[in-house]
Automatic annotation (TrEMBL):
<feature type="region of interest" description="Disordered">
    <location>
        <begin position="25"/>
        <end position="51"/>
    </location>
</feature>
<protein>
    <submittedName>
        <fullName>Uncharacterized protein</fullName>
    </submittedName>
</protein>
<feature type="signal peptide">
    <location>
        <begin position="1"/>
        <end position="22"/>
    </location>
</feature>
<keyword id="KW-0732">Signal</keyword>
<feature type="compositionally biased region" description="Basic and acidic residues">
    <location>
        <begin position="25"/>
        <end position="45"/>
    </location>
</feature>
Length: 166
């Protein structure tokens, strides 16, 4: 009986937990509650129309070319391509049972994969980027959805819209 009361109290406590507020209401750092009528940081596509990854400094654009090769372009604070220095990258994508491993080589101001992504419009990818020989490797994992977004001009993996709750 005590267990049932403990469970009931736990469920009741969670129901009124601030962490479970309505999705359209949240608290700002200054303590004010705000409706979601305003926008947070606007998602932007890279100069080629790809996904901007902010896990490194400088940030970089992850872009899938029409040939399904991956192009990585490092960006300055102005959002434009910066010259490559010692940056390196590797990626693994596709099916877990038969993954496609990508190596990258310098191609102008970008790194370009040696192989194309496997067939299909949606696949997981594990991307590893190293800014310099001494730097720690940064790993990014995300799904690459190559379907066209219905409301913006980008593919879903680089979509700048607010749909889908992302």
């Amino acid at each position: 009986m005590k267990t049932n009361i403990s469970i009931l109290l736990a469920v009741f406590g969670l129901a009124f937990s601030p962490a479970l507020r309505a999705a359209d209401e949240h608290e700002h750092k200054d303590g004010d509650k705000a409706e979601h009528a305003h926008e947070h940081a606007k998602k932007e596509a890279g100069p080629n129309g790809g996904r901007i990854v902010t896990a490194t400094d400088p940030h970089f654009e992850f872009f899938v070319t029409p040939e399904r090769k991956v192009k990585i372009t490092f960006l300055g604070e102005d959002g434009k391509a910066v010259a490559l220095k010692e940056q390196t990258a590797t990626a693994i994508g596709g099916e877990r049972a038969k993954p496609t491993k990508l190596a990258f080589a310098k191609d102008g101001e970008s790194l370009l994969s040696d192989k194309s992504l496997p067939e299909g419009n949606e696949m997981p990818i594990v991307l590893q980027v190293k800014i310099s020989k001494e730097a720690k490797t940064v790993t990014e994992k995300f799904n690459v959805n190559l379907a066209k977004c219905p409301t913006c001009e980008h593919a879903e993996y680089a979509c700048t819209c607010a749909h889908g709750g992302e």
